[in-house]
Write a structure and sequence with these properties.
Helix content is about 25%, strand content about 25%. It has 17 helices and 23 strands. It starts with 7 loop residues before the first strand and ends with a strand. The model has no long low-confidence stretch (mean pLDDT about 95). This is Beta-galactosidase.
Amino acid sequence: MPLNDLPHIARTATAGQLIVNGRPFLVRGAELQNSSFSSVQHMAGLWQKMVDMSVNTVLGSVSWEMVEPREGHFDFSVIDQVIRDARSYNLKLILLWFGTWKNGISTYVPRWVKMSPKRFPRVVVQTRDGRAEVTETISCVHGATVDADAAAFRSFVRHLNEVDGEQNTVVMVQVQNEVGVLGDSRDRSDAANEVYQSNVPSDLVRFLREDWHTLHPDLKSKLEDRHTLVEGYNWPQTFGQSIYTDEMFMAYHYARYVEKVAQAGQSEHSLPMFANFWLNYGEDSMAKAYPTLAGGGDLPGDYPAGGAVSSVLDIWMKFAPSLSFISPDTYLNDYHRVCSTYRHRKQPLFIPEQRRDEYGARRIWAAVGEYRAIGSCPFALDTLEVDDCAYTKHYALMASVEDLVMAAQRETNSIAGFFFDEPDHKEASSHPDPVFEMAGYELTVERAFTTGAQGAGYGLIIHRETNSDGTAKFLLVGAGFQVKFRSLATGTCFTGILDFEEKTRDQETGEFATHRRLNGDETRSGHQAIMPNEDPDDGGFPINICIPAVTKMAECIVYGLSAEG
């Protein structure tokens, strides 16, 4: 099959898009709980639920223990049925390879791997009281393990090509899951210590020195100076004795390991592949409000050391080139900072795990609009009922305009996405109201006006057309926000709203129809285009001027007047 017929990543001037069956594809995804794909019976009760939630892509794990229970003997019967069932519901799949690691630990490897510690040695960590402790995590510095994992992954991906190479039900594959060492800043097994005291590989030293000006600031902050990066010395001699040297050591070796596994799969079937990572938490996170299990920490080892956090992201991007992109799993961090970080070096953004509640659902609009994400997916959506799931309404609304979204993503200054948390939320005051420039106008986005308490909000603005008279048409999608417009043309003395109409859209034809014209109170007498909440608070005000959202879609035409007439 020609490469262009396979799912692939197409790079544009502004983003990277997933192409499926020749067309840009926006992932409205749901990542299932860890072992859901291990049971056809369990999945039978979930497929229709995913459809009813307006999900178009299901993310689920395929574990090494599941497909190679005995070395060299493979069983793909369960995943084959999962693929057939997904296809029958017109759903796409992103398969997550739980190979050597899942959440930094080797719990999904086969029994024959777990029971052979001499052949597949474990990570050793130093406990707080100075003891050496053998862990359940398999070390990444041993060739036998990567060879076995790569062979299993190659067989799995070859089989995918055989059973799905024409249908493209599977559109991407994740390689491993949140790798890294937990409990210490690096592997301290005898073999790992020997490598640590050996010379730093020349390719790493040269990369850091030659690419110094394009490295992420968080990596550069851990390095003294590019001129100190000299070949021929061991890790602590080159980078200093610190936990961040340990982290770079682990990142380099994990990246090389994952690259070998991904490369083995790519040799059989050229699907887009990526790796996901458990993030570290800084002052901008809410981690301290949660137990360590959920919160991770600030230091390598509190979170999986060696995973592709911002301070080693460049190392991963360089030494795992078979990955189409590096993905963050984000639950408790500042969402804008995470999205911005993982667009580093203009790589595509895809978020395979985030919160499944309304807080998380609001954020998909910023991911897709501002950061041009391929998708941002909640974890464990299968544990919710359709009517209780916030993503049901968000995904349905997104689906109604996603062809316009994908077209606008490819253009400069043609799409903007945003969200507002409840005003009393911790993050609500940490970001100013967003301001965008489109089609010669400045657009300031605020919470929707109410006479009572303001609420949360979310949405997209898409530039649709500019006319010869300087008027511009914008599509507004979402709820709980309003937009002020200001013409940037020289000599403009007034900017106003010419037309503002609530719209519906035919899903078959893509044609818009006017539901109602909006003016007066709905525009605060022409000052803002208001996309209200579903149930705006009037605060007991005796005059009802706060209308509720109906279609959550509107077209607004704006104009500017010159002082010269």
